[in-house]
What does this fold into?
Amino acid sequence: MINVHIICVGKLKENYLKDGCAEYIKRLSAFARVTIIEVAEERCSDHPSESEIKSVIEKEGNRIISKIPKGSCVIPLCIEGKEYSSPDFSTEIEKMSMHYSSLSFVIGGSFGLSEEVKALGKLKLSFGKMTLPHQLARMVLLEQIYRAFSISNHSKYHK
It folds into this structure.
C-alpha cells in the first residue's frame, strides 16, 4: 500500500473543511496510508512588502522541505503546474506508484510555494487558473486523489 502525504501550510479552521477532509481520508484508507503534515503559517503585516512576501514564502518553504519524507515523489500544487483530467491524473498516480513508495503533495500558503519547493517536484499539479484558498485546495486535492485511486481500481465512484 502506498503512502500519501499531504504537506500543507496552516491548519484547517472551518468544521466543514475538517469534516470533508476526514471523509476523503477515511475513503482513501482502502487504497493508501494518508498522512496530513501541517507546517506553521508565517505571520506578516496586513499590507506586506515584496521583501516581506519573499521572506514568508522562503520560511514556509524551508518548513515544507524539512517535512518531505526521504525518497518520496514530490508533487507541488502551483499555478504553473499541469492541469489533468481525472482519468489522466489517475494514470499519473499509477505511474508514480510504480517507482515510489510514497507521494508527497505540497500545498503552499497564501503567497504560494518557494522556487526551491517547486524545483523538487517530479510533477507539478494545477487545479486551473482560478485561485483556491489553500484550505479548500486540501479538500479538493484529497477528493481528486480518492477519485484517481477509484478510477484505477474500477470503482463506481467516478462515472
